[in-house]
Amino acid sequence: MKKIIDEYPVGTLFDEEEIEAVRQVLKSGVALTRGPDVDLFEKEFAAYCHAKHAVAVSSCGAALRFATQVLHLQPKDEVICQANAFWVTIVHLLERNIAIKCADIDADSLNIDPEKIESLITPRTKAIYVVHHGGNPADMKPIREIANDHDLTVVEDTAHAVGGEYKGKKIGNDSEIACFSFSALKNLCTLGEGGMFITNNDEYAEMARGLRTNYPYGKRIKRSVSNLGEYPKPKSPAFMHAGDAWDYDWIEVEEVGSTYRMSTPQAAVGRVQLKKLDNFIAIRDQIAKRYNETIDSISGLRKVKILPKCKHPWHLFTFFLNHKTGINRNEFVRHMENEHNVRLVIRFWPIHLGGIMRMRGHNIGECPVCEHIWFKEQLALPISPQMQDWEIETIMNGLHETMKTLSKTK
Which listed residue, of 202, 301, 343, 389, carries a Cα 20 to 30 Å from 245's Cα? Predict the structure, then answer.
């Protein structure tokens, strides 16, 4: 049985450096959740992005949850999110019963179409959620202009975009809030899970650091006495883990954190991976160039559009089958797997058509561009710095043969 060419289970490369980093942490005796590598990784990642603050967390989902919390989004508030966002982009919004307005996408870049945003804004709108699809930088300038005009916050789901650049600046550089992922398939991986909350806002950063360690936020007042009933406050109450119970009375709790920390071994690996990231992206870029040259040579296929002065880090390699060829997209996928042993995984399902979103009133026809592209044209190829040359050649030859064969049978 021939090997299926598929996504690699890890989107990066590990070697003895990462193993040694973990070994050093385990031998050092430092705290495995609050060791010095966490602070160092935050500083180094912030410097890489040219951002003011980086807060290491357990996942991109945790970072997105913090975005909702630092903005104090409440039930009946509205946010705008692009139609092809990932489920994790919105799950924290659904939990708080926040209304989600789905904006259609640009058919060539797969990113949110800035021209589809303004008509969705109401007095209840608080934020615009932007996903850099596959790592392809979204057109942030007009999006930020719209946000500024309406006093909205832009939250960037940058799960795919680590190492990407918009107009010559790293993704995250100018962000109010950017949420990165270091999970298994990403270009930088911190042992399977991990993320980073990036911001240039001091208050957001301070709050995120508290939220990742169970800290509550709200209104409290200083107590005039330090005893609780007949029990006086000890000179050193640290052993009690009492928090602020001796010194404050709470009036209102607005937000409550939980345990969303990145471990010290994860951060140590992240520091090693960060040094290698640009090289990993360069390998992906070389593969993408070969794919794109093949796509350019085949009538009926087209490349994803990348904006000028932008750098695509190629977390995903997406392209399109022109529906006017008459070739069925799903048949194309089946042929590539059955005849060439190449598995195509397509992301992401139109978020407004998910069962829970339909329950909330969303339906087919809401975002026609996204729906057309997803159901008829969107395709994707495996891409990884681990790929071998024979795999890349097999994929490129498979594209030629599949189009040739299906063109004859349509």
Answer: 202
- The C-alpha angle with vertex 15 and arms to 169 and 316, in degrees rounded to 5, equals 45
Among 20, 57, 17, CA closest to 41: 57
Phi/psi region, residue 393 (left: phi>0; alpha: psi -120 to 50; beta: rest), is alpha
CATH number at residue 104: 3.40.640.10
pLDDT at 235: 86
Residues of the chain with pLDDT under 70: 1, 410
The answer as to whether 359 is a domain residue is: yes
141 and 174 fall within a common domain: yes
User: What pTM value is reported for the model?
Assistant: 0.96
- Same domain, residue pair 248 and 263: no
Rounded to 5 degrees, what angle do the CA atoms 280, 283, 288 make?
125
> Can you name the residues that pair with 283 across neighbouring β-strands?
none
Which class for 252: exposed (0-12), middle (13-18), buried (19 or more C-beta within 10 A)? exposed
Whether the CB-CB separation of 107 and 373 falls below 8 Å is answered with yes
φ, ψ (nearest 5 deg) of residue 198: -110, 135
Question: Quick one: pLDDT at residue 110?
Answer: 99
> Residue 153's beta-bridge partner residues?
127
Q: How many CB atoms lie within 10 A of CB 121?
A: 17
pLDDT at 237: 79
What's the CA gap between 375 and 368, in Å, rounded?
10
CA-to-CA distance for 370 and 18, rounded, in angstroms?
Answer: 40
